[in-house]
Amino acid sequence: MPELPEVELARTVLDRALDREIASVDDNDEWVCRPHPPGEIARALVGGTLTAAHRQGKTMWCETAGRDGAPGPHLGVHLGMGGQIVVDGHVGPTGPEHRNPGARKPEWDRFTVNFADGGQLRLFDKRRLGRVRLEPDLDALGPDAETIGREDFRKRVARGHSAIKARLLDQSVLAGVGNLLADETLWQAAVSPSAPADELGAATTDRLYDALESALKAAIANGGVHTGEVIRHRHADGACPRCGAPMVRGTVGGRSTWWCSREQA
Fold first, then answer.
1. Taking the domain 150-260, which CATH number applies?
2. What residue ranges do the domains of the chain occupy?
3. What CA–CA distance (Å, rounded) separates 131 from 83?
4. pTM of the entire structure?
5. 96: which DSSP letter?
6. What are residue 71's DSSP bridge partners?
């Protein structure tokens, strides 16, 4: 699934679609646009505009306005496993899962907004795992991993006896961290992924907070979580890029996990 950096990169592309009159909408893919029948999203948007693009964790949505300028429904867009936002030829994200797509068949454009100025917003999704819907539910999400404060991070993450990696991946605790970002953050902080969250201590929790902040900034700047320092070493015979010790693979919190056998023991 896309993680916070990939969704943020898509959101910046979505910014290009703002404040442009919507001439028509193709919402005929009943799977991607479920539970809306064809035409329902179009009726809510045509004649209006997208006015702001937001993200909380991995969830992205636009505010809208109607023909009269009054606020309209929120438009939620989920990228699925490998979806991309395309606005007038600008594409995001562009990580390794999006490379070499082959022929771009028209039917892989799952949702399209055509603007009165001739421009276009598309959800390109070869695997058809993305989602577009009105009024997406955000109630189950915790604070955004990019903007959470240090004190709030301590209170929310260093609680309970579950493994710290499982806490980082819990979207109701902290929104936006996926499997790769969790491994990168824990490696940067030199914290064992299976360490009980409530046993970390304040200094370790603060180190983890700083590592997450650093990993997020680097991933957004460099094009996605796949650019992390340890990510390319997460494989058999991989070695820690910091100390040279073997990387180890296991399952933590139900997810495949890699860590340094020496520094994260």
1. 1.10.8.50
2. 4-134, 150-260
3. 9
4. 0.92
5. G
6. 65
